[in-house]
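hey can u run this one w/ magnesium ion bound, need the structure tokens asap thx
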Amino acid sequence: MDFRLDILVEYIPFFLKGTLLTIGLSLVGILIGTVLGLIIGLGKMTRNKLISFICNCYIVFFRGTPLFVQILLIHFGVVPMLIGHTNGIVASIIALSLIAGAYIAEIFRAGIQSIDKGQMEAARSLGMNHVQSMKDVILPQAFKRMIPPLGNEFIVLIKESSLAAIVATPELMYYGRALASQYYRVWEPYLTAALIYLVLTTSLSYLLNRLERRLATE
Amino acid sequence: MDFRLDILVEYIPFFLKGTLLTIGLSLVGILIGTVLGLIIGLGKMTRNKLISFICNCYIVFFRGTPLFVQILLIHFGVVPMLIGHTNGIVASIIALSLIAGAYIAEIFRAGIQSIDKGQMEAARSLGMNHVQSMKDVILPQAFKRMIPPLGNEFIVLIKESSLAAIVATPELMYYGRALASQYYRVWEPYLTAALIYLVLTTSLSYLLNRLERRLATE
Amino acid sequence: MIEVKNLKKTFGSNEVLKDINALISPKEVVVVIGPSGSGKSTFLRCLNLLESITAGHVSIEGVDITDKKTDINKVRTEVGMVFQQFNLFPHKTVIENIILAPMRIRKLSAEKARERGLELLRKVGLKEKADAYPDSLSGGQKQRVAIARALAMEPKIMLFDEPTSALDPEMVGEVLEVMKQLALEGMTMVVVTHEMGFAREVGDRVLFMDGGYIVEENIPKELFENPQQDRTKSFLSKVL
Amino acid sequence: MIEVKNLKKTFGSNEVLKDINALISPKEVVVVIGPSGSGKSTFLRCLNLLESITAGHVSIEGVDITDKKTDINKVRTEVGMVFQQFNLFPHKTVIENIILAPMRIRKLSAEKARERGLELLRKVGLKEKADAYPDSLSGGQKQRVAIARALAMEPKIMLFDEPTSALDPEMVGEVLEVMKQLALEGMTMVVVTHEMGFAREVGDRVLFMDGGYIVEENIPKELFENPQQDRTKSFLSKVL
Amino acid sequence: GSSGTNAEADGTSGEKKKLKIATEANYAPFVFLDKGEITGFDVDFMNAVAVEAGYEIELVNVGWDPLFVEVKDKLSDLGICAITINDEREQTYDFSVPYYLSTNEILVPEGSDIKSAADLKGKVVAVLGGTTGQEAVEGILGKNHKDIKKFDNNNLAILELLSGGADAVVADNAVVQEYAKNNPDKKLSIIKDEEGFEKEFYGLMFPKGSELKADFDVAVTKILENGTYEKIYEEWFGAEPDVATILAEQK
Ligand SMILES: Nc1ncnc2c1ncn2[C@@H]1O[C@H](COP(=O)(O)OP(=O)(O)OP(=O)(O)O)[C@@H](O)[C@H]1O
Ligand SMILES: Nc1ncnc2c1ncn2[C@@H]1O[C@H](COP(=O)(O)OP(=O)(O)OP(=O)(O)O)[C@@H](O)[C@H]1O
Ligand SMILES: [Mg+2]
Ligand SMILES: [Mg+2]
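ok here u go:
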């Protein structure tokens, strides 16, 4: 297989720009998604049937439909309603945040439920109310357990952000496709993109492993 | 928003065909992926450094790169080597199986590691060797715990199979795109496809929940 | 004072407490014994509403805690509880475990709370462990911290649910010692335990539970040496 | 017969067994006591190589198990082990738990294995539970099944690691009873336990371990009533 | 690796082998699926050319990215899919003589101040990646200019315009008309600017060094000259083709 380095060299600045946006999108996505996931996760756990039902629908919808369709819906349906016109970056961030929120809600719920029941009972038996117990006793412990799955979600988000290219958000995959369609060559751009994704995801999971080990020994 | 039902009606048989193939692809993918995941998962856990390293690379690669690129690689790199010419369905099945294998390897490893160490010790202390202990004691228990995450992986696979459309595998999304480009309309095909995916994934997760509850009370 | 009248508790279709009546006076130390599953923990947990009560009444210091209008968090500050599994907060140091509730509920300042916390740690013999994390403590030390934590809210009553049964044998003594001290100081205590020596030495009264009822009760010496009921006899024959 | 010579075991940089020497004769019942973390479990687990041995020699019935050429699976069939946490196989019925190893290793037929399994269950008083799943048993019943399972391989030696400390008090007796019976029948036994009554009644010898050494050993009466070492004295003062 | 094409494998049956032709059926009215069948202008044209050249052909919908690998790796004998000939692609592939003159049109909202191709400067333009539209706009704004949004689907490009994310869409006039036909109620104006855009041509795409190119060049020219082309063109586009310009470009 011939492999044309020259066209890759030509695209280096674009790949760089794209990679930065890829990182930015996933980073913002995981941050907003975490806040959202917290709200949705708590919402699903409340005794209020209606709130719990709505939160559950949210989770079911975002986990049950392809991201591709979600991005289109948000890009052409939601963002114009919000800011009057489409904007690929805004749409990608919203879509990634919303889907991350759905997964993080479950991570969050699992994290809370993984804390021994005795912790809540001990806090309540001291006279602390439910909110105080959550805040001072349950959540700090749950958050620590959530770090590894949150990291995984970040990795997933990095890969999924590649779908942002379909609404012309100029991230890594967008420039990969631009190169592909300029030269009608597939391997150079896509293998390069794959390699960059691989570097991003493996270095992230390396960092995660170290963090996890640090947390475990603490 | 005007919504042309007539063109949807016209495409009903294609959506049906596509949905069947989507189900078929993910089903075959999860089955082969399970076998593969078992092998890779065991491989990663062996003491043999080389095998363990190779299995780990496999997992890192498939979990760290976008499925989109994997499908292309397999469609053009692997399938022609195997059967002499390209074939979208074969490539999709291989790609979905390989990625499922990478995730299932981890599910499998987690399942085995979740079994109390005392089980292996009890079996070994009776004089059973490692293989016997695995087969008779550890694996049956691990499999039961693997059912819920395997079900989740199945759901993920259903959604990811939508990417098979890029190598023109005539599954659900393929016909969705066909409809979109024949009539230059976006919402009718994509919302319909999203709905079908949602029905597939939610009914599957409903079944899973029931199964999980049955297993828990057993 | 604790008054329990016709207390019933069911989990689903499982009636765990069938008809419990008891009167526990101030400064009394009541030991609860009985076979596994007889409802001892459930009984104890009903006393501070960690389990909702199905029927009957429980009043603590004259306050009916089954009344919907009662502020249960306030009641719980009066009733300390010590669990078999310690349930210390692993993300907080020993002293932080102790001062958390006083600061949150009694609104004590950090210094004041810490000062009183250290005093309690001294009492349970763990002053030097104030800034350690629970994971670095032995079982006996953990349980003593748990007792100090419960005492920090200055409860009028202390409930103990098998406080020594998760401990290595050589640590049982140090925990019982702290409990004995507490009893001597006049704390009202309800203790579920299998430590018959403690019951004999410290208990004012022993309740024997079986099948959701209090089958027999008496002063320790009488109950252990002269059980009236067959079930009590058969249980004691296995345990003593 | 078990011969232990200069046994050392380290976990990383933690030297858990420092220099253990012991000789256990056929039909002898040896009880091992000592504070938590002193290495009792590790010692026991070295006897059937559940822990790899760092240095020294252990021979079982004349076979040096530290020799690389020894088939450890064969040795293990001669040495039964009973764990604190029972470790029954939860996906198998009681009888399946018992017959698994004999069928796999001794290649017994299912009928033959079942027949002998039922015999063992009768011995531990659980014949009627043959087709129950472990989860439906009480702790004492589980531990008796675990003993029957170990016996099914017809071992020459039985190791017990705190077989009663996960049990509710009223179930301790039934398990000790089975162990006593076994001792009477002439089984060679090494028992880590805190049940001093059992040690006194059944033990031929007591080893007191501390800090990775066997600090003192003697016949039970002597060791309990007349400990020579300070560490032994201090330990016994807490436990007895 | 595969040596030669699979078409060669079945070549035993007759004089001329059956050719495998790769396409992506996602670009109405050139190539698209009509209820599962591949149809379109390119399909009819390809069939006519094949008959003229004396080849049996099989048109396979392989997908867009796969199309290039198929042709480059000789898994298919050639590709047709409204593929624009340009220098960069000629480094990797051989193209037939042009068979279609793509007239790009600008699609703008009604009342837009864009009146010509030159007005696109400073505006955000949505295009379909890899098409003549992209080439044309990049000719004006510059390669990979940040104001060019490339979509991999014309629908999305036009939807972007309708949703306010772009000021204009530049696409082949056939595409623009097909869109307008299916979405009559959208308030869009079409601007033609023959001078403003460079002329772009479609060609058949062959692997580098393909021996088929010679046969097909002749056949394409023949079809253009003998009136068959005009018939097919009018059938699909309802207009007369500018055969003269295409033939001139072929020289
Ligand atoms: N949260 C619960 N849900 C359902 N059943 C419960 C629950 N808690 C306890 N039970 C049941 O209630 C019965 C009594 O339990 P309880 O814990 O009060 O017994 P106990 O006397 O404390 O026994 P032990 O000595 O084993 O602690 C048991 O049959 C138990 O299965
Ligand atoms: N797998 C292991 N890895 C590292 N350290 C271990 C391991 N197993 C035991 N240890 C350490 O070895 C020491 C002795 O442990 P061991 O379990 O033998 O003590 P023990 O006398 O049985 O105590 P206990 O009465 O608590 O069961 C302890 O300090 C323990 O932390
Ligand atoms: Mg209890
Ligand atoms: Mg031990």
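The mean pLDDT of chain C is 95. anyway lmk if its weird
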